[in-house]
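Just scan my protein:

. . .
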Amino acid sequence: MKQFILILLTLGLARASFAQSPTTAKIDALLSAYAQLNLFNGSALVAQKGKILLQKGYGTKASGIFQIYSITKTFTSTLVLKLSEEGKLSVTDKLSKYYPGFPKGDSITIEQLLSHTSGLFDYTHGNDMPDMQEKTLIGFLSKKELDFAPGTGWSYSNSGYYLLGYIIQRVTGIPYEQAIHQYILDPVQMTRSGFDFKALASPNKTIGYSVFTSKEKKPAIIYAAPGPFAAGAIYSTVGDLFKYHQALQKFSIISKASLDKAYTPLRNNYGLGWFTSSFEGQQVVGHSGGAAGFRSNFVRIPELDLCIVLLSNNEIANLDLITRRILAVLFSKPYQVPVERYCINREAQRAITGTYSNDTFHVYIYVADGKLVAQPATQRKSVLLAQSPLDFYVDDLEGHLLFKKDSNNKITQMVVKRNGKEDSFKRIYPGWGLLGNATAVGWEGRQPDLVFTEDAQHKGIWTITNIQLSTGNIKFRFDNDWTINFGDNDADGKLEADGSDIKVAAGRYDILLDLTDEEQPGYILTMRQP
């Protein structure tokens, strides 16, 4: 579940009037360009002052139902603030009030859970929980060290929002999902929104894709209920989210005072369930969502009653960037429509793939969904649009990546060119590792991962031999961080990026990681005889 990237624009006008027809045509053309490159497939809505400027589907129905993932956090926050208005809880309540004996629970507040300042370990970073039940989660988190002292730092924690869902259940006496319906979805008449997407039977239900190319479309896994729960379990439509926007604008769910509190950033431009930024005296608030099969973005400018909703059913879509482009259209600012001017073949792609470093951070270049992508360590990936064999436009950067060859015709350097400046990166050669609670390394990564060795004669074949594993779970990851990691969603020996943990029984193993085809990675676990 990735963060909403804050939108910082310098606008010449504090307020603007939008001519509907030309503006709609420009937004439509922009979204169509992204759709043509398979960088957006889904539904879009743009509205201002209660008037819908555009509501359209691109490869899906405009009324399509999507998993919105972390946009759910705004609903959880809104409900917590509603319960606070009713006197059923307070954002200053300590976690120990609801979970006596929880380590340092007397110094963690509901407000800190809402604002990601609690220091709680994020369970999505690897866990050994058999389920996500309340008792299991509390036991799991109780054994984890805090990332920092509560209130002193910021770290995006889905665990905190899971706890908020359980606290909501405790103070209302009803399931979290029922409480969201009762307080928000039903009064706002969000009739196409709800929970348990897997069980949803509707002709408007969209399929989420982990791979979405012209040649291949691979459906993503669907989480069984409760799924991401209060951190990200809601499904919705662009139309329903527009209703939600209107209800917030009219303060019909919670008061202006509560919303002002929610929109006030505490740390890292995050308030209570909302990312926020300001420009020219205006305020942008919103949240994005992303996990298996779907990406979503919900952005509002309350002062202008402006709402942008983008819901996509492929994982490569950068909806924050597309949102930024739409805002540029709305405010008559320059923007670039993405285009690919050159077709690069698989052999040329393989010559470029690798790791590049400027000694400050690494950038991984690899093939995903048939396209070269760049992914800085711990950040999201960006598609490279070829302009020539060694020149690639990167929409996220609004700049170019240029690849340089040495005297042996090998690519050894990458140059990032943007805003008239150039930064040089040299090619380096890190490797793959193994971690998990079945290994001595564990999940936290406080020790280096167990190292694989690449076969000198067969590039792309990585092995580790005679390794002792205990009963538990493992995953493969590159360069000792989670930027590029593989799991197995179907227990079929095929690997998926950010896939499910791989279950193993206790024993000694030889492990082969097959990356000869970057788009179809696989592995073999061979248990040695006692």
Summary: Residues 1-20 have pLDDT under 50 and may be disordered. The first helix runs from residue 20 to 36. The radius of gyration is 24 Å. The longest strand covers residues 282-291.
